[in-house]
């Protein structure tokens, strides 16, 4: 066990999710939409709601910047869209942005990441699980440590964080305090103690459950959607606090 505090980040897709995370004393949120696609850039309205709801909480609203699902290799037009979305997040009062980009050969697209970091100005920059899709996740974390990135979200290259504990511990050693290692990807409450024991600085989870509100009808897509579960968020915060003692 460890005496250091470990942060809890909740991935939320709605204003309701923001309120739940605030009420449960989560450390921060990743604001996103389209989690079933791996997460997409949220709307301007949702960013504004999140900033307003969490007013006074430093570092709370971290906005995912990703224009589509289907991997992390982005065309020039997509990069330009992402740059504009980062600028919008800065202007709207977000605390940080969450980005990532790979090259065709599966390595970090360092040039694009530097551009994102520059545009983000003084905001915290998190690099998301693009590192887990890279050819060498540990080497990717080492490369990020020198770029001015605040933290990296990773499962240790595994499908689920609980299966990547050994690699996460290796990433913590590689980062050597130069950036935070945040465990995310299939995080269940019962694996949080093992993740904390591996030395990660934070845990990340959606703490969500499926819900329905009427039928979508033709052109509406699937009927079910995901909502933040307050009981799961509270359990995650409590489990992380207990494991951090």
Automatic annotation (TrEMBL):
Name one matching Pfam family. CutC
Q: Does the keyword Cytoplasm apply?
A: yes
Q: What keyword terms does UniProt attach to this protein?
A: Cytoplasm
Q: Where in the cell is it found?
A: Cytoplasm
* UniProt keyword Cell cycle present: no
Top-rank taxon, per record: Bacteria
Primary location: cytoplasm
| Family statement | Belongs to the CutC family.
Per its record, how is this protein called by name?
PF03932 family protein CutC
Q: Which organism is it from?
A: Microbacterium candidum
